[in-house]
């Protein structure tokens, strides 16, 4: 089946992609939404250059959309319609159990004449973290919600902070947006992504470390 993977650059979209590749082979493309200025991804604050480096290491093309929150859905659907015209039949998403997210993903895919697949849906959150680490994936913490996670976690390897996060009472799946990750290596990647950490940006209650190649 021809499909795209909704790609945040983080651990959950990576696990969803791993499942989909096992079922259907490589995706036609990854798809990532950027902020309206095109400089960072909407969800994780990653630069297009880092996202392109991930796609290159995965051996998969990547497509970008850019939008404000106000026109996010309209722009998203327009891109899906264009992908459907290329023969892509389905989208793969990494959400675990947030009903509103699932409903939205099914809606935008339906508007484009596609089906939506959520392979991590209703899986145990802690078990998915264990699966990600046991598979040999490597990731960095790139965004934290300062209401839940201190800024000192930014840039640290995910595998090194799982127990610290749990000690703080933080859900280590990050499904509630407590933190986001950037995958920099693992079994799907032809080579690791070599990133350097530069400035830390602040936006409302969030802090984001800037990764550059």
Task: List the keywords.
6 helices; Rossmann fold; five-stranded parallel β-sheet; four-stranded antiparallel β-sheet; 213 residues; alpha/beta; 2 domains; putative n-type atp pyrophosphatase, domain 2
What's the pLDDT, averaged over the residues? Answer: 97
Count the domains.
2
CATH classification, class level of the largest domain:
Alpha Beta
Class based on secondary structure composition and strand pairing: alpha/beta
Record field, number of beta strands: 9
- Which overall shape is indicated by the principal axes computed on the Cα atoms? globular
Number of helices: 6
The CATH superfamily of the largest domain is identified as HUPs
Stated plainly, the CATH topology of the largest domain is called Rossmann fold
Question: Poorly predicted ranges (pLDDT <50, ≥5 residues)?
Answer: none
Q: Order of strands side by side in the largest beta sheet?
A: 3-2-1-4-5
Major beta-sheet overview: 5 strands, parallel
| Strand percentage | 15-25%
Rg from Cα: 16 Å
Distance between the termini: 33 Å
Which architecture of the largest domain does the CATH hierarchy give at level 2?
3-Layer(aba) Sandwich
SSE string: EHEHEHEHEHEHEEE
**Helix residue percentage:** 25-40%
């Amino acid at each position: 089946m021809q499909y795209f993977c909704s790609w945040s650059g983080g651990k959950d979209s990576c696990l969803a992609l791993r499942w989909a590749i096992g079922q259907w082979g490589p995706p036609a493309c990854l798809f990532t939404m950027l902020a309206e200025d095109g400089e960072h991804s909407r969800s994780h604050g990653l630069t297009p250059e880092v996202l392109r480096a991930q796609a290159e290491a995965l051996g998969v093309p990547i497509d970008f959309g850019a939008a404000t929150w106000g026109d996010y859905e309209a722009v998203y659907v327009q891109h899906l319609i264009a992908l459907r015209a290329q023969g892509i039949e389905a989208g793969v998403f990494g959400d675990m159990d947030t009903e509103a997210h699932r409903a939205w993903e099914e809606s935008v895919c339906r508007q484009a004449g596609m089906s939506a697949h959520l392979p991590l849906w209703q899986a145990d959150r802690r078990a998915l973290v264990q699966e990600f680490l046991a598979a040999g994936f490597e990731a960095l913490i790139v965004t934290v919600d300062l209401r839940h996670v201190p800024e000192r976690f930014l840039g640290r390897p995910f595998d090194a902070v799982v127990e610290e996060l749990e000690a703080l009472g933080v859900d280590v799946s990050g499904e509630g947006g407590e933190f986001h990750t950037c995958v920099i290596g693992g079994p799907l990647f032809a080579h690791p992504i070599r990133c350097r950490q530069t400035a830390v940006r602040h936006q409302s209650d969030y802090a984001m470390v800037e990764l550059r190649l």
